[in-house]
Amino acid sequence: MSKRAIIRVQLTTPVKQQLDELCQQRGMTQIAVMSRLVDWFFQQNELVQAAVLGQLSEDLKGQLADQMLRQMAQNTDDTASGSGDNGGGQTDNGALPRPQTAARAAGQEQRFENPATSPRSAKGRGA
């Protein structure tokens, strides 16, 4: 096993509660979640890191959003045409690939509903 560094993280009470809920939902330890988040963060380019840290102007945030949407569209096109990298590395254009889910691999589209706007959720709220 490689050497590990242990650090302490200061969280507000609401954020700590959200982390606890996430860990319970995912069946993961806090250390595993935080390690994966930090690993992911350092795999991102400097622009994404700056955005996550809240260090971008509104203009640059808009440019980043446009760039990310173009990359996502390109990755979708690459995945559909069979090009790109589905092995977890970066694609030819330097963008991170979209994860290949079992449903998408089987040709089934995944749909996620927004609970606030879903007709099913409205029934449950008495609407």
Concise description?
With 127 residues, the chain is mostly helical. 54% of the residues lie in helices and 0% in strands.
What does this structure look like?
The protein has 127 residues and is mainly alpha-helical. Among the domains are: 9-43, no CATH class; 50-77, no CATH class. It is 54% helix and 0% strand. It contains six helices and no strands. The chain has helices at residues 13-26, 30-43, 46-52, 58-81, 102-105, 119-124. The radius of gyration is 19 Å and the shape is extended. Mean pLDDT is 73; it is low at 84-127.
Number of strands: 0
Quaternary state of the chains = single chain
- Which range best describes the helical content: under 10%, 10-25%, 25-40%, 40-55%, 55-70% or over 70%? 40-55%
Largest sheet: none
Rg for CA atoms = 19 Å
Structural class: mainly alpha
* Distance linking N and C termini: 55 Å
The sequence of SSEs as H and E is HHHHHH
* Average pLDDT taken over every residue: 73
Spatial shape: extended
What share of residues are in beta strands? under 5%
Number of helices: 6
Low-confidence segments, ≥5 residues, pLDDT <50?
Answer: 84-127
